[in-house]
Design brief:
With 151 residues, this protein is of the alpha/beta class. It has one domain. The protein has 4 helices and 4 strands, in the order H-E-H-E-H-E-E-H. Strand 2, helix 3 and strand 3 form a beta-alpha-beta unit. Helix 2 packs parallel to helix 3. The longest helix has 30 residues. The mean pLDDT is 81. This is VWA3A protein.
């Protein structure tokens, strides 16, 4: 419920927010087995991707801390909710930057928009698991069929 009372404000200073979350807000991090930090964003960070990736890799090493990113791409132009699209990078460049950052933190990346899901590590993982199950099922069916033919 408290999320509903929040308002969008601030800047694109991604590193400042990330440092605060990791170095200040995770005071009791030793008491927890694992923790996740979720970034909900519509645009590219204002710092270089490699700088953020290096910081994230260092901050997450030794901890079971994962950084996950949910990127929402708005349709170009104005948006009725007042969200301003990123003006410094294309949606594809923004997605690539966050994918690199997430990989440094062993996290997950999700990219969606008004039209639906563009990319999601969770969905990719589920599809991969389903493909493995299908292949295993086909091998089992082949094995059963070959055993029937021997009898």
């Amino acid at each position: 419920r408290w999320v509903l009372s929040l308002e969008c404000k601030g800047s694109r200073n991604f590193m400042s927010a990330l440092r605060r979350a990791v170095e200040v807000d995770f005071k009791d991090k030793d008491k927890h087995k694992s923790q996740g930090l979720y970034v909900l964003t519509t645009g590219i960070p204002d710092q270089e991707t490699h700088t953020i990736s290096a910081y994230v890799a260092e901050a997450c090493s030794g901890l079971d801390l994962q950084l996950h990113v949910c990127l929402f791409s708005v349709t170009q132009g104005t948006d009725s909710s007042g969200i301003i699209p990123a003006c410094y990078a294309t949606p594809r460049e923004t997605a690539s930057a966050f994918k690199e950052i997430v990989q440094a933190a062993s996290g997950r990346f999700h990219w969606f928009g008004e039209a639906g899901i563009f990319e999601s590590d969770d969905i990719t993982s589920i599809i991969s698991e389903m493909e493995k199950a299908k292949n295993y099922s086909q091998k089992c069916a082949f094995l059963v069929e070959s055993l029937k033919q021997r009898s």
